[in-house]
Write a structure and sequence with these properties.
With 394 residues, the protein is α/β, with parallel strands linked by helices. Helices cover 43% and strands 14% of the residues. The strands form three sheets. The protein has a seven-stranded mixed sheet with strand order 2-8-7-6-5-3-4, sandwiched between helices. It binds pyridoxal-5'-phosphate.
Length: 394
């Protein structure tokens, strides 16, 4: 016997993976340059050279048993201190190594955090459309229920009234993601303040902590507007971070959970994070990459290419008559479909070898996600195909 739930999860590919696989097949048929694959959020910018140099230095100077051995379950103190120092310098916070738990990327940070705060099978986790589709998997696989607040068009900030109405005595946590995948929007300070005020009031009303789980793999990929640092606005914040996007290291699986010390009983919550990591089998995050981050915390890849791609794509698509959300950050453009059937629109796009992700699973039918972490040349080449797609609706 196997778990039907896990079987389904393992055998049904996500729409994004499905498209990505289709793209690979199509490229083999008609050539890489003729397929405009905007399906997946794999950084197109390489890590800075210092990353490679530091890795080589670690590998050549340190003892292999030390490089590849287990670290403490929560991560080596040196990497946790380096991260604390970097954040303190950038955000005027007062974190120490004790606030950090190293993980295998944001996905692990999220599953660990969700598991740490779930108290009952009926617990609810609120998120906001459009949302990263894996939240449903992460919450439901821990036995929780994902509650989705509908999108607020046209700015895709949070509808605070609907949010307030969605909180119940069963709400364990709220999951936010800013800069957002897939909308590219950064939640404003006003939004975060409004969210925090509602959460504080509801905590008092229901006599339970409601945690704010902030998923921040795109924190540094912003084009001028810096995302508000949530621990400054709400004490019961848990930050889930990863180096997958900012340092272009998605395959290396390295990130952290931050439990701030202004949280009441933060050491207890931190212990629950450790327990949750343990129960999920995350003994320690990859040791070599912990050592790398200990020396490079705070650095990023050259993110300027994403800004260039954003401008090119936004200008190109709006001048063709497509309606798009102006992205503040991340590397996704959210575009309105020209017909209400999102799947039909995406199929038409496929005729021109444009691979666009329908946003239905992100909780936002009528939109597509365009991942512009691709070469600038591909965006330039794709414009003729987008023009043909626009012509279909004239
Ligand atoms: N959260 C969001 C919003 C993402 O877009 C992703 C990956 O694309 C993740 C979490 C998972 O990140 P990681 O690869 O670090 O596990």
């Amino acid at each position: 016997m196997i778990s039907e739930k896990m079987y389904k999860l393992g055998s049904n590919r996500s729409v994004i993976r499905e498209l990505f696989e289709f793209g690979k097949k199509r490229k083999a048929e008609i050539g890489d340059d003729n397929v405009y694959d905007f399906s997946i959020g794999n950084p197109s910018v390489p890590s800075p050279k210092i990353i490679q140099d530091t890795l080589i230095k670690i590998l050549s100077e340190q003892e292999p048993t030390a490089i590849h051995g287990y670290t403490s379950a929560q991560g080596d103190p040196s990497v946790r201190k380096a991260i604390a120092d970097d954040l303190n310098a950038r955000y005027e916070t007062q974190f120490t190594a004790d606030n950090f738990y190293m993980t295998c990327g944001a996905a692990a940070s999220l599953t660990i955090s969700i598991r740490a705060v779930i108290t009952d099978a009926a617990d609810e986790f609120i998120t906001f459309a459009p949302f990263f589709t894996e939240y449903r998997v992460f919450v439901e696989s821990q036995g929780g229920k994902l509650v989705v607040v509908p999108p607020k068009e046209p700015d895709f900030q949070i509808d605070l009234k609907q949010f307030e109405e969605s909180i119940t005595p069963k709400t364990a946590a709220v999951i936010i993601n800013s800069p957002n995948n897939p909308s590219g929007v950064i939640y404003s300070e006003e939004t975060i303040k409004g969210l925090a005020a509602i959460l504080e009031a509801k905590e008092k009303e229901y006599h339970r902590e409601i945690y704010l789980i902030s998923d921040e793999p795109y924190r540094e990929i912003n084009y001028g507007k810096v995302p508000p640092f949530v621990t400054k606005y709400y004490n019961n914040s848990i930050i889930c971070y990863s180096y997958s996007k900012s340092l272009s290291l998605p395959g290396e699986r390295i990130g952290y959970v931050l439990v701030p010390n202004q949280m009441k009983d933060w050491q207890k919550v931190y212990a629950a994070i450790c327990g949750s990591g343990r129960s999920l089998g995350f003994i320690c995050a990859p040791s070599l990459f912990q050592k790398l981050i200990a020396q490079t915390a705070g650095l990023t890849s050259d993110l300027s290419i994403y800004a260039k791609n954003r401008d090119l794509l936004y200008k190109g698509l709006t001048s063709l008559g497509f309606s798009c959300v102006y992205p503040d950050g991340a590397f996704y453009l959210f575009m309105k479909t020209k017909e209400s059937d999102t799947a039909a629109f995406c199929e038409k796009a496929k005729k021109y070898d444009l691979l666009l992700v329908p946003a239905d699973d992100f909780g936002c039918p009528g939109y597509v996600r365009i991942a512009y972490c691709v070469s600038t040349a591909m965006i330039e080449r794709s414009m003729a195909a987008f023009a043909k797609l626009a012509d279909e609706y004239k």
